[in-house]
Task: structure prediction
Amino acid sequence: MIYRTWSLMRKEFIHIFRDPRSLIIMFIIPLVQLVILGYAATTDIEHLRTVVLDADKTPQSRQLIATYAASNYFTIVDYVDTQDEIRYFIDHGDARAGFVIPGGYGSDISAGRQVDIPFFIDGTDPQVSNIVFAASQSVGQSLSVKLLQQRTGIAPQKLLSIDVRPRVWYNPNMESSHFMIPGLMVIILYLFTALFTASSIVRERETGTIEQLIVTPIKPIELVVAKVFPYIFISFFDVLEVLAIGMFWFHVPVNGSLLLLLELSALFLLSSLGIGIFISSVASTQQEALLMTMGTALPTIYLSGFFFPLEAMPKWLQTLSYLIPARYAMEIMRGIILKGVGLEILWNQVVAITIFGLAIMVLASLRFKRRLD
Result:
């Protein structure tokens, strides 16, 4: 009995080690997941991109800017001349925060008068905005205490002469549902389309019917379109369902163009379809197709900014995230739904997602055609 069992076990091990795809799935993917989760699963926000409007330009105002720059929370990326420029930077995603130093700040500080510092925060990500909200006040209060302790005769009630007033844009109540629902739409578009596209084509090969289809007058492109279109329709229906529930149940406002949102969602489907077709050309069974799709799902979810802010990740992971099409789709969805911006703001993301989509589709089509041949 033991000998028979050992023989079967030995046979199974031989089968496993003769299948390089299974070996990659079993040994490499867990390591990739561990590395990504170990570095990406963090909410420690540091060096947040910040712009400054310094209307005072005095040693005191420069000291305030230096105090924010010296903290681990903020990195000053640019100086602007108007508040509209702060909104422009935040709308484009080039900055996540900005503050205004009003004229007369230096003289008011020297005289011991209280000064209000408007501090604007991108509220599309509640995890980031909550941390920045608290950090913007604590840094200002720390400098205020330091300045007033240098003087004598200051009444205790006047201890805080710098009053930082954070204002959260786009998601004033910092509700997580406003942040999660646009991201969920991207994940649904990606996972459903890629998974079902790969599985449906592999199923035809696994059952042997794809060979029967090849010998018919049907062209490969016709076969692919016929197989994937139903899943495109279902994915779009699911996205509309999530959007409707988000709007009417969770009260997520759609501040931008709904038509533009659907058009760019369709553009993102190019990438999902390409990945699904590519997986179908590699996988031999539906189980392999499922595992490969799940293997791409983790980087997509964690490196797109769906759960964890990209600013909290190491630089090398932030750079790697530019290779994830869903990153650009997240910015597009949240930009349209929460910020109400259009193509004039999102054109960089649209160009990137178009290039990714076309490249993946061409690569997948070539690979699929070779597999059919």
